[in-house]
Design goal:
mainly alpha; ABC transporter involved in vitamin B12 uptake, BtuC; two-stranded antiparallel ribbon; 15 helices; 4 strands
């Protein structure tokens, strides 16, 4: 008979709250947001943390964050997509041509752009799956292919220019336009200004006319991705496909379908950013989304995604993108040279990889 000193079943052991938190992939990014906030509270103009200042850094954070969430899902699934920045330009060309050149309404142009992007993403995924080549190599090739096609396509569509203008005029009055451009809740902010609860100009209009729609999409996409990862069978499949492909396949997980679908989702995230930025600017150009693939992947890594797959968080990518937005805009509120952003970028990547590696070893028990 076992005595009182018998070993306790490992399955019955309970972890402390601190131990559970240490295993959360988004911990590093959340801590990073706090540290960056403290840094700018100490060094930046207080205007950075007014309502208008927060909107200023959340807008670029949202655009990057939509890409980063797509990149994070794909990385959790064990793959990379280095073509998402070029996909922003290519999808932007398709969308602008659909509205300006062909005069299609947004009810057709927007779904068509997503279908087009998903088709290109599926090509990436099919090549990776069927060839067995690393996704890094395949999507690196598509980075150049899509960027080149964007440049060539723009010149063909415009007769030699690398910009296609007229999107704002082509979409003016369309009932879908407010969902993808401009600011939301304008009436609410006017009322808040009348009550004296938000800052106003001398004429009484609010300094912040509303919440930019990309911020709302950013929050919605982050929430949806988190729900999929943590509350659905598809989320389990994504983690399994990235953690151990052979074991996942033997367990009945449709690994190929999951990975191809993730490439399609990532491309659709790029298309979303393309539609929003093209409608806001009223035009598209061949350099749209330039180098955003690297920033998106770095934001995902800062958010806790492992380069080896099988571990990560959409919320982590959410916070990682906010860090980017705070730094790139926050430096303009300080006396620091804005070129320090590049130093920060590399430093955060290195720190995040080291931190995530330490967490991985803690979770898996490696030494």
């Amino acid at each position: 008979m076992a005595g009182n000193t018998a070993a306790v079943d490992e399955r019955l052991k309970t972890e402390s709250f601190g131990a559970r938190m240490m295993k959360r992939p988004e911990l590093g990014a959340f801590a990073g947001v706090i540290l960056v906030t403290i840094f700018f509270l100490a060094t930046a103009d207080p205007a950075m943390f007014t309502l208008s200042g927060v909107i200023n850094f959340m807008t670029p954070a949202a655009q990057l964050g939509i890409l980063a969430i797509g990149a994070a899902l794909l990385m959790i699934g064990g793959e990379f997509d280095l073509s998402i920045g070029s996909m922003v330009a290519f999808a932007g060309l398709f969308f602008a041509a659909a509205t300006v050149t062909f005069g299609l309404p947004l009810t057709i142009a927007i779904p068509a752009t997503f279908v087009f992007a998903a088709a290109v993403g599926s090509i990436n995924g099919i090549i990776v799956i069927r060839s067995g080549l690393p996704s890094f190599i395949v999507t690196l090739a598509f980075l150049f292919i899509l960027r080149g096609l964007s440049l060539v396509g723009l010149k063909l569509a415009t007769g030699g220019s690398t910009q296609l203008r007229g999107v704002r005029d082509a979409t003016e009055g369309d009932w879908l336009a407010p969902f993808f451009s401009g600011d939301a809740f304008g009436g609410l902010f006017l009322w808040l200004a009348e009550q004296g609860w938000v800052e106003t100009f001398n004429n009484g209009t609010p300094k912040v006319p509303g919440i930019p729609v990309e911020i709302l999409w950013f929050v919605i996409i982050a929430a949806l991705a988190t729900w999929v990862l943590l509350r659905t069978p598809a989320g389990n499949w994504i983690f399994a496909a990235g953690g151990d492909t052979n074991a996942a396949t033997n367990s009945g997980v449709p690994v190929r379908r999951v990975k191809i679908s993730l490439f399609m989702v990532t491309a659709c995230c790029a298309a979303m950013v393309a539609i929003i930025t093209v409608m806001d600017a009223g035009s598209t150009d061949a350099r749209r989304g330039f180098q955003k693939e690297f920033e998106a992947i770095i934001a995902a890594v800062i958010g806790g995604c492992l380069l080896t797959g099988g571990y990560g968080s959409a919320i982590g990518a959410f916070f990682g993108a906010i860090i980017f937005g705070m730094v790139v805009i926050g430096l303009t509120y300080t006396d620091f040279d804005q070129d320090w952003f590049q130093v920060f970028l590399g430093g955060m990547l290195l720190i995040a990889v080291l931190f995530n590696n330490a967490i991985r070893k803690r979770v898996t028990g490696e030494r």
